[in-house]
Automatic annotation (TrEMBL):
The Methionyl/Valyl/Leucyl/Isoleucyl-tRNA synthetase anticodon-binding domain, residue ranges: 84-216
Keywords for the protein's UniProt record, in alphabetical order: Aminoacyl-tRNA synthetase, ATP-binding, Ligase, Nucleotide-binding, Protein biosynthesis
GO molecular function: ATP binding; leucine-tRNA ligase activity
PANTHER family: LEUCINE--TRNA LIGASE, CYTOPLASMIC (PTHR45794:SF1), LEUCYL-TRNA SYNTHETASE (PTHR45794)
CDD domains: Anticodon_Ia_Leu_AEc
Similarity comment: family membership: Belongs to the class-I aminoacyl-tRNA synthetase family.
Stated name of the protein: Methionyl/Valyl/Leucyl/Isoleucyl-tRNA synthetase anticodon-binding domain-containing protein
InterPro entries, per the entry: Leu-tRNA-synth_Ia_arc/euk (IPR004493), M/V/L/I-tRNA-synth_anticd-bd (IPR013155), Methionyl/Leucyl_tRNA_Synth (IPR015413), RBD_LARS1 (IPR055416), Rossmann-like_a/b/a_fold (IPR014729), tRNAsynth_Ia_anticodon-bd (IPR009080)
Keyword Nucleotide-binding found: yes
Pfam families in the record: Anticodon_1, RBD_LARS1, tRNA-synt_1g
Domain of life: Eukaryota
Domain Leucine--tRNA ligase RagD-binding: 237-313
UniProt GO BP: leucyl-tRNA aminoacylation
Length: 382
């Protein structure tokens, strides 16, 4: 397939390899061929992908040159921050998973894991570092690893980067596969939780701000600075309870931790009927809530092991959020933020009249609840 249409000389939808190389360059052609697909569907060579590859590779070269030129301004020393550890973990995962894809001749997956996903991790790292800056050691590792991972697909680009930008001896093609540390799947889950929470907080703040801008009838709107929501109280409940707790207890009893296999769905459904959930008068409604939750926890347990079925997440939610408060404030647009326990009455009292939100949508593991207010509101309650 060429641009999602059958290749045909009669319609003019046709390219020889030589023509493609002359039009896009050899590396961009190889890039688009790798992206064309490896499955049972017809491979689809897309001109737009080849053109985009030229831009991507050129921009990556420019970015690396900028990083090396400003190397003295990067943070020195070994990786130490939360963002550092997350980025290092993503690099390790990319090395291991990309190798698996190459060995299976799944070149589209290799391109996704070793180039696209790795660049997304780099971009997220850049945003997460803030004023502290990126770690010099990690950026050098990223540039070297990414170059080695893309070498089988874009060898000319890789050799240029290896010799002329990274100033390495020899050839990238002979440098061997990069060595990776042991990936930490729990850290990856914790970072996804953090990033998802930030997106959720930002949307919630925008919704709350749009609602607070509508003045009541007969009253003048308050001054914008006083009305501005710049304080965020994040409430966390690290333990499951109610029907979620019962679901987890059933899954724990039906999970083979050695083989990472669950009992058949029929057995799990029968166990649900026999526990306290089955005694509910509205069992059918509760069961509808249970099924997506059970599926999610089963997938997680197969990935990270039996601790995914614990009555709390495999990481400390409060510690993750507290360690990244500066990132949360910066990305959500807050001047002050606190992470509080939903079970602490004194902490709940800080929310004042907004505390009712914690009853309407109670926080649960993986689902923190944020309440936003102005500085004046917070000072009035302290």
């Amino acid at each position: 397939m060429l641009n999602s249409e059958k290749m045909s000389k009669s319609t003019g939808n046709f390219r020889t390899l030589r023509q493609a190389i002359e039009e896009f360059s050899s590396d961009a052609t190889r890039f688009a061929l790798a992206d064309a697909g490896d499955g049972m569907d017809d491979a689809n060579f897309v001109f737009e992908t080849a053109n985009a590859a030229i831009l991507r590779l050129t921009k990556e070269i420019a970015w690396m040159e900028e990083v090396i030129a400003a190397e003295s301004s990067l943070r020195a020393g070994p990786p130490s921050t939360y963002a550092d550890h997350v980025f290092a973990n993503e690099i390790n995962i990319a090395v291991i998973e990309t190798e698996k894809s190459y060995n299976a001749f799944m070149f589209r997956d290799a391109l996704k894991l070793g180039f696209y996903d790795l660049q997304l991790a780099r971009d997220e790292y850049r945003l997460s570092c803030g004023a502290a800056g990126m770690n010099r050691e990690l950026l050098w590792r990223f540039m070297e690893v990414q170059t080695r991972l893309i070498t089988p697909i874009c060898p000319h680009y890789a050799e240029h980067v290896w010799r002329n930008i990274l100033r390495k001896e020899g050839f990238a093609i002979k440098a061997g596969w990069p060595i990776a540390g042991t990936p930490d799947p729990t850290l990856r889950i914790a970072n996804k939780y953090l990033q998802d929470s930030i997106v959720k907080f930002r949307k919630l703040l925008q919704k709350q701000e749009s609602g607070s801008k509508k003045p009541k009838k007969g009253t003048a709107p308050p001054p914008s600075e006083q009305n501005k929501l710049t304080v965020g109280l994040v409430y966390v409940n690290e333990n499951y309870y109610g029907w979620k707790e019962q679901c987890l207890r059933v899954l724990q009893s039906k999970f083979d931790s050695q083989a990472r296999l669950f009992a058949p769905d029929e057995e799990i459904n029968e166990a649900l009927k026999n526990c306290s959930i089955g005694q509910e008068t509205n069992f059918k409604q509760v069961q509808k809530l249970c099924m997506p939750f059970i599926k999610s926890k089963k997938d997680e347990a197969r990935s990270v092991g039996p601790h995914a079925l614990n009555l709390k997440l495999p990481f400390g939610e409060m510690s993750v959020l507290e360690e990244n408060l500066e990132l949360i404030k910066r990305q959500v647009g807050l001047e002050h933020a606190e992470v509080l326990s939903a079970s602490d009455e004194a902490a709940r009292a800080k929310a004042g009249v907004h505390a009712s939100m914690l009853d309407k949508t109670p926080p649960s593991p993986g689902e923190p609840v944020a309440i936003f207010m102005s500085k004046l509101d917070l000072e009035a309650r302290c």
